[in-house]
Amino acid sequence: MPATGYIIEHDKSGRASCKGACKQKIEKGALRFGSCSTAAWDGEQTHFRKLTCMTKKVAQNALDFYGGDITQLRNWATLSADEQAEVKEVFDSFIASAEPPKKKAAKKKKEDDDEEDSAPPKKVKKAAPKKKAAPAVAMPGDDD
To answer: Which residues of the chain have pLDDT under 70?
Structure first.
């Protein structure tokens, strides 16, 4: 088995918790999606999530990893045709969804003198005057 990649399978015991948004237990027998990576102790580590907790980023990473071919997921061949269709539908929904528009910073408008409805201009507080340094005191032994 490769050390990294993605896997789709049925939960075997019902003990795994979702690493997605819900953080709930994944029911035994439920279809789950896993992100596999090499752990620090030189073994494989898999983080599972429910298909309903998939994100667009995770789906895109999996597609990029397998060159856009979702059928390359580990255990794909063990799924029924209905389950394969369900997984394809989940991935297709993320890929088809449009990118949310990025928010642009609001530009401040200069107030016109013609506008009377606008709020009065804010008063600017003047900084307190700086204190003058105390004059140097001559100490005995200073030669100036």
So the answer is: 1-3, 98-121, 133-136, 139, 142-144
Write out pLDDT tens, residues 80-112: 999 999 989 888 887 777 554 444 555 555 544
- Give the residue numbers spanning the domain of 49: 5-96
Q: Number of folded domains in the chain?
A: 1
Residue located via tokens 């992100």? 35
Has residue 33 been placed in a domain? Answer: yes
Closest CA to 18 of 45, 44, 46, 48: 48
For residue 18, what is the domain's CATH number? 3.30.1740.10
| 119 in any annotated domain | no
The β-bridge partners of 25 are: 17
Q: In Å, what is the CA distance from 52 to each residue of 59, 76, 109? A: 12, 18, 44
